[in-house]
Design a protein that fits this description.
Elements lengths: L9 E4 H6 L1 H11 L3 E5 L2 E6 L1
Parallel strand pairs: 1-2
Antiparallel strand pairs: 2-3
């Protein structure tokens, strides 16, 4: 796939972040992909 940029974004609710903070940090670090955190169904933060 030359010349093709593939972006994969994970979306998780803030409750998931609260319960799984270390796992989220590790997942973002390993995958090198941003994770969008939602609150009330709306994006509220992006973790890189």
């Amino acid at each position: 796939m030359n010349g093709v940029c593939r972006v994969l974004t994970l979306v998780k609710p803030v409750s998931y972040l609260k319960k799984n903070t270390l796992a989220v940090i590790n997942e973002v670090r390993e995958n090198r992909q941003p994770m969008v955190i939602t609150q009330d169904g709306k994006a509220s933060a992006v973790i890189f």
